[in-house]
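Researcher: Here's the sequence for the chain we discussed earlier.
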Amino acid sequence: MRYRELGRSGLSVSEIGFGAWGIGESSWVGASEDESVRALHRAVDLGVNFVDTARGYGESERIVGRVVRERGTDEVLVATKVPPKNGAWPAPDGLDPAETFPGAHIRDSLETSLRVAGLDHYDVLQFHVWSDEWVGRGDWLETVAQLKQEGKIRLFGVSINDHEPDNALALVRSGVVDSVQVIYNVFDQAPADALLPACAEHGVGVIVRVALDEGGLTGRITTGTTFPEGDWRNRYFRGDRPAQVERRVAAIVADLGIGPDEIAETALRFVLSAPAVSTVIPGMRSVRNVERNTALSDGRALTADRLAALAGHRWQRNFYS
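Model: Thanks. This is the structure I predict for it:
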């Protein structure tokens, strides 16, 4: 496993992290706690030292906390998220930060997360939505500073709204944030335009989510693909979206001259090719997925020709809406 600096924080994180939404047994159907625990332990065995969870991920915080306690809290860095108090996902324009992240709510959410996980601190506390309209307003920053002083968190970050990377540029440039989490993949390359350079300039860590487009960049989403009842992906890949994805992936495979089974590896290597990226956090609900994804941390970068070819497959859309 290779490691990268998380911005200016002084923390070194595995370039393959563990995205723990899928193990929460809520939005993703099919996870079992026994397999999730085995997967987390195997990830740590293979050098993964960064796990990303959230208050809103069902049982995820509890399961992650169980494994971290079993391994020893110094071995694994854990990030969690505070949901917006008003429940608005993503954050629309015009909201006052007092409606979304008032100090008392931030503290209450963190205390709940600590209790559920059985931990005495989180390494990164992130707001689960963000709007640059909140920079310099509200009491959230004062609360974050107090929580750092109390030792309940080490770093502060935000999870940027889906497909809105420029909506955190003011925050990054303000110098008050330690990390940002953002969607970045072969289809959504927009963060490379302004956000990634700004993070590199200001020493802000970058945590990449959705590197595989919720499964779209694995080659397994094809015309007619369905998911178990209650699985949120039935909405994300509704209508003719699987057929659209299949065509786009087929074009990438043809353009690069790779096999369909190589698309997921290519997609993860694309993300890791960006120097500003600190870690990528694919969801890994099985030992098999852990072993396959961690094996990519081998220092083999995509060639300039392949990166140039992938730049032509940018596809701006929002399947979350």
